[in-house]
Amino acid sequence: MTKLSYWGFLSLNALLACAASIPSASHRNCQRSLKACPDGTVIVSGTNLKAHFSTVQAAIESLPHDNSSHTILVLAGEYTEQLNVTRPGPVTLLGETSHLTDASKNQVTITWAQANQDSTGQSVDNVFSSVLVVAPTLESSYTGSGTTGYAVPEDTPFGNSDFRVYNIDFTNTWADYSDGPAHALSLSRANGGFYYCGFYSYQDTVYVGKLGNAYFYKSIIAGQTDFLYGFGTAWIQSSDVLLRNCGGGITAWKGTNTTFENKYGVYIVDSSVKAANASIAPDIVGQCALGRPWNSLHRSIYANTYEDGSIDPAGYIDWVVDGVSRLTSDTFMAEYHTFGPGFNATGRASTNASIVLSPKEYAPYNSPRKVFQTPDGKAGNIDWIDWQA
Ligand SMILES: *[C@@H]1O[C@H](CO)[C@@H](O)[C@H](O)[C@H]1NC(C)=O
Ligand SMILES: *[C@@H]1O[C@H](CO)[C@@H](O)[C@H](O)[C@H]1NC(C)=O
Ligand SMILES: *[C@@H]1O[C@H](CO)[C@@H](O)[C@H](O)[C@H]1NC(C)=O
Ligand SMILES: *[C@@H]1O[C@H](CO)[C@@H](O)[C@H](O)[C@H]1NC(C)=O
Ligand SMILES: *[C@@H]1O[C@H](CO)[C@@H](O)[C@H](O)[C@H]1NC(C)=O
Ligand SMILES: *[C@@H]1O[C@H](CO)[C@@H](O)[C@H](O)[C@H]1NC(C)=O
Asked: How far is the CA of 354 from the centre of ligand 6 (A)?
């Protein structure tokens, strides 16, 4: 309880009264003006003396390790730190902004510069590079290696049941080209929704690990190499996937054999995949592959999505290691109703890597309700998604 002495103008009662995630309409007012925030909102600012904490991680660590709901408002500014959320209860991180529905104008940035090596150059697991980690334990967040990745102990509890972020950018500034895994986000064994957020790096920008469920809405995800990767399930809705250069593939998923039918994979829907800006665009025409199989059970689908001329005419590509192709009949690297200069039907037909789906083939995957599962494989795990955002 010693932390309470830091809590400035908030009373203990007000803090404990903060029992539920605040509704969308109410947090939107709070993001525009501190005065409109519900009682119990934890305030972070590097400069405002009214704030409870000067770093976001200190605010996260002040929350009890239980199932209660908490909201943190981060005032405009740049925060140089790594975040790590292990608690099971709902957490909402709000970024102060005067442009609630435009991720390109976010006023809060969390930034860190790290790849998968320590200060002596020794390589370490990719998780240590991440700007934001959401996972119950360190082991559950490891990427590991081999076709099945790190063997997470089976008795590991599920982590955060309902993690939400609005209008915050997560930027890994390690290098301005692919120079090893450098995560902006790592989410495992948790449910997370990201609304009007930005994720910027070059390699492995977004990692959705084992039993991770991540929903992105009107967000920006920027990278060069394998920058949407993982084992879990990601649904990227109405967002911009920005190509800062080309390398590997945009998606690189590892599928998992389970006793139930799983839908693990990455779904990019009603979105736009395009060069990050007009200066890089002419350099990457026809060169960015939609994805490549990190293992043979890779699943990714681009649906109803615009593709600019940066996309490789073949679409997806194989990943050959020691002369061995990873493509099998289980590899599911697909598109459904993609359009724009990046979609070349002849190119797609010339390779076994790219699959173009019929409506019937896409139907089992065509909504978040169908793909987000509980750890034991039940569909419809979507209560943590904010449909009003
Ligand atoms: C949180 O809730 C879950 C599921 O209801 C329960 O299993 C778990 O023990 C709770 N955790 C804590 C720390 O209270
Ligand atoms: C996150 O915090 C937990 C609990 O303190 C710790 O065990 C874990 O190592 C941290 N994760 C990272 C990647 O630092
Ligand atoms: C365009 O994007 C590339 C890749 O991220 C970057 O290096 C370059 O600085 C950007 N140029 C402009 C004008 O923003
Ligand atoms: C999944 O099971 C198939 C069939 O037994 C096997 O060939 C494949 O290697 C397994 N893949 C993974 C990633 O475990
Ligand atoms: C489409 O792909 C085919 C086969 O790879 C190629 O010959 C053709 O030039 C491509 N068309 C465009 C417009 O890029
Ligand atoms: C696709 O796979 C079939 C069957 O394995 C093979 O005969 C064919 O050559 C492959 N085509 C391409 C373009 O790789």
From this structure: 12
